[in-house]
Amino acid sequence: MNMPVTEMRQCATDRARACFLRACELDVDVRKPGNVSRASAGHGMTAETFIASARAVAGPLFESGASVGERIEASVEATWAAAGCNSNLGIVLLCAPIARAVELRPDATVPADLREAVESVLGELDLSDAQAAFRAIARARPGGLATAPEQDVRHPPSVDLRAAMALAAHRDSIARQYRDAYYDLFELGGPTLGTRFTLMATSVSGAPDTGTVAAVQRLYLALLSSFPDSHIVRIHGEAVAHIVMTAAQGWRVRQRCHGGLDVDPDFAAWDASLKADRINPGTTADLTVAALLISGLTGPS
Question: pLDDT (tens digit, 9 = 90+) per residue, 54-64?
Answer without folding.
Answer: 999 999 999 99
